[in-house]
Amino acid sequence: MYKLVVLYSEPADPDHFRDYYVTNHLPLVMDWPGPLGWRYSFEVATTGGDAPYFAVFEAEFADAAAYHAASESPHGQRLAADVANYATGGVTIVHYPVQDGTG
Q: NCBIfam families, per this entry (predicted)?
């Protein structure tokens, strides 16, 4: 299993971010070939103090090759280019292999 996590910093216009994300960006995600599953949240919290992020997106892929193929595809490039339309606060993208924690 391979995971993608996108962490969005506080945008200049939170209402625009939410509206654009749900109305325009997520429909692109729905048509993205590759992810086994995905989810998002606008309710990012920490156990102590203010959360450093406004929103989070995560997706799972079968393996690193599937992630890279999806990201480098024309559709993946379109998704990446669309981020500038709403993520005015910046974005941190991390991806990594997931180790199974069950014994």
A: EthD family reductase (TIGR02118)
DSSP 12: S
Query: What does pTM read for this prediction?
Result: 0.92
pLDDT tens digits for range 65-85: 999 999 999 999 999 999 999
What CATH class is the domain 13-92?
Answer: alpha beta
Q: How confident is the prediction for the chain on average, in pLDDT?
A: 95
Instruction: Catalogue the E-assigned strands of 1-103.
Output: 2-8, 37-41, 55-61, 91-97
**Residue 17 φ then ψ, to 5°:** -55, -55
CA 74/CA 85 separation, integer angstroms: 18
